[in-house]
Each structure stands twice: as C-alpha cells, then as structure tokens.
Amino acid sequence: LFEDVTEYVRLERRLAETTDYLNLLIESLNDGFYAMNAEGRFSFCNQAFLDMLGLRSGEELFRKGPFDIVMPEEAPKIERMLERRRRGEKVFFETLLMRSDGGALPVQISSAPLFRSGEFAGIVGIAHDLSERRRLEAMVEQSHKYLERAYEELSVLDKMKSDFIAIASHELRT
Fold first, then answer.
1. Which of 38, 39, 139, 160 is most buried, judged by most C-beta within 10 A?
2. Under 8 Å between Cβ of 93 and 83
3. d(CA 25, CA 115)
4. Which DSSP letter does residue 137 get?
C-alpha cells in the first residue's frame, strides 16, 4: 500500500510538471492560441490571444463564441470554416477579429478539429497577427505608385529632351 501511494504521489507530481511545462510553451508563443469546445465556446487561450482581442482575462473570452470576436462581415466565412472543421478538416484562412474597442485586427488562422473517441470534441487554433505585414504591404504599394508616377514624368521629360535635340539638330543643319 505504501508503494502504491508513493507511486501515486510521484505520478501526480509528474503530471503537474508536464502541465506547467505545456502552459509555459503555450504562453511563450507570440501568436494567439485558443481552444473551443464542441458547443462552439472558447475554453482555453493564451495571453497573446487575449491581447489581440483587447481582453483582460480568459473569463471574458470563455463567455463568447467565434461570431462574437470577428467583424460582422466575416460571419459567413467563419460558419464555412467551422463546418469544415466539424467534418474533420484542418483549415487555414485569413479573417478580421473584432477587438474589444471595436477595431478590426487582420489575422491568419490555422486550426484543426479535436476528436475524442471518434466524436467531435472541439477546435484548436493559432491566430497570427497580420497588422505589420499589411502595413508593410501598404508601404510597398505606395512606393510602387510613387515610382510609376516618377517613371511617367521621366518619360515625358525624356520625350521633351528628344524633341528638343531633334529641333536643335535640325536648326543647326539649316
């Protein structure tokens, strides 16, 4: 009996250490990590996901479903993605999360279904913030437009120069 209790205590300690380690890994992610139960309610998340949404605690999120945290125009896409995961598909897509202040946050979602004993048990996912990438893309687009305008202006100037040289050359010959 003493050995059984000792083994139980050792296993309990090992389980606590493993749980702490897994929580440390998940909290160390730069991306948002979340889990939803089979009913479509959030049941777990890391601090990065809460920060993305502008929420202070997991309890605020755990009262919500996916439609509560996305911009309204994204609802049809979210419904399609939820259905695909219920069928067992992993999905990868972009959407707009709705922050607690009402602002939109572009993210890339990678998620997969969870099954327990063959039954759908929920969803696990990672949300990657695309804000910086979108900002850089806008800067590149702006630079591209500027360079196109500069090229057009240089083309006009080059044509004017060529016309001037042709006229001057003609005048010098006559």
1. 38
2. no
3. 22
4. H
